[in-house]
Amino acid sequence: MALLTPLLTAATATALAHDELARLMREIIYWLQGHWLRLLVASALAVLLYAAIRLTRRRVMRLCVRKGGGARGWWRVAGRTASRTGIFFSVMVAVELVRVVADPPDAVNQLVHMLFIIASVFQSALWARELIVGAVETHADDPQVTTEALSSAMGIVRVLVTVAVFAVALVVVLDNLGVNVTGLVASLGIGGIAIGIAAQSIFADLFAALAIIFDKPFRRGDFISYGGSAGTVEEIGLKSTRVRGVAGEARIIANRKLLDQEIQNISSRDYRRISFALAIAQSATPEQLRRIPALLKEEVERVGLRFVQAGFTGFGSSSHDFQIDCDSPGADWAAFFQRRHEVGMAIIARLAAEGIALAYPAQTSFTAAPDGRLIMPYPDDPPR
């Protein structure tokens, strides 16, 4: 008897479902017989609404193409979003709008409304995905970024956005259908935390790569300085960035570690500062010392650099110290190196022409007499 109980329960459930389906079919047939004219009018209205929705979609797409001109931008994003308007959504919108006119049975009414909710939520998810991904693409559009890196990054962004958006859409649909989604939301949260902890380093490098591509702290071809290294950026990948060092060596550094350091983008500067510390011999006269800033300015401007400042900075052990600052226009290292050489040589030549000597370490010795008076270190009448 115990073995027959499940079979009897299943048979009873099947019979009840069969009876319910039969009752629903009788209601639909009765409704069709009594409301055929209303159904005909509602069908005609639904077809017109469907055609209007599809026509609006097509016109919006054409408008976006005409305004955008085929280039990447918000018009292109809007056109691509409009193109994702599905046929099932268009049909359900038309049917939902004429549902009141048709006045179907309660079971059909509930079924149509449920399908409309499902179509609307998932269609909204499609639109949201295209808008988010399109906004990211528009912000990240940069000809300096490698196509492979950008394509890979956008592929990952699309996957992440799709999973997030459609997970939310699924929860919304189930909640509208009367399903208790509390446990599902908790499970999704716990699963996401577990995945995040397990792949922490991978996601750290991935999001660092996305930050580099989208925020653009530097681009391919830029000369950057980070930590104790410097070089030219050759490629920005999803895991690491490749930098060509000043000595020709290839440096590969993880994106996460690169962004954890202070990065100086030297290529984005408008000029390079040239600074010289000059040690003038103490034998120079006060008049010569006063003229040094003007002489330095003349030589800097003659070479073609922008003079910033020059002046006395302090007393050295065997010198009077001066400093000069000037700017080399542009960020090119080779041009900066050559101009620094030229202005340095010009300063040396000008000081020599003015009779102003550069200092070098020097020491003078004095001899004391038995009574403590200083005397010359050599006799007054040296031997011949």
Question: Would you mind describing this structure in some detail?
Answer:
The chain has 384 residues and is α+β, with helices and mostly antiparallel strands. It has twelve helices and ten strands. The protein has a five-stranded antiparallel β-sheet. The chain has a three-stranded antiparallel β-sheet with strand order 6-8-7. Strand 2 and strand 3 form a beta hairpin. Helix 4 crosses helix 6. The longest helix is centred in the first third of the chain and has 35 residues, at 106-140. The protein is elongated and about 140 Å long.
H-E order: HHHHHHHHHEEEEHEEHEEHEE
Uncertain stretches: none
The backbone outline, from C-alpha atoms, is elongated
Largest sheet: 5 strands, antiparallel
Q: Give the structural class.
A: alpha+beta
Number of strands: 10
Report the sheet-strand fraction: 15-25%
Distance, first to last CA: 144 Å
The helix content is: 55-70%
Q: Can you count the helices?
A: 12
Strand order of the largest sheet: 4-3-2-1-5
Provide mean pLDDT, rounded: 78
Q: What gyration radius follows from the Cα positions, in whole Å?
A: 41 Å
Features:
12 helices; 3-stranded antiparallel β-sheet; 5-stranded antiparallel β-sheet; alpha+beta; 384 residues
Please specify the SSE layout and strand pairing.
Layout: H1 4-34, H2 36-68, H3 74-83, H4 87-97, H5 99-102, H6 106-140, H7 147-176, H8 182-198, H9 200-215, E1 223-226, E2 229-236, E3 240-245, E4 250-254, H10 255-259, E5 263-265, E6 271-281, H11 286-303, E7 306-315, E8 319-329, H12 333-353, E9 367-368, E10 374-375
Antiparallel strand pairs: 1-2, 1-5, 2-3, 3-4, 6-8, 7-8, 9-10
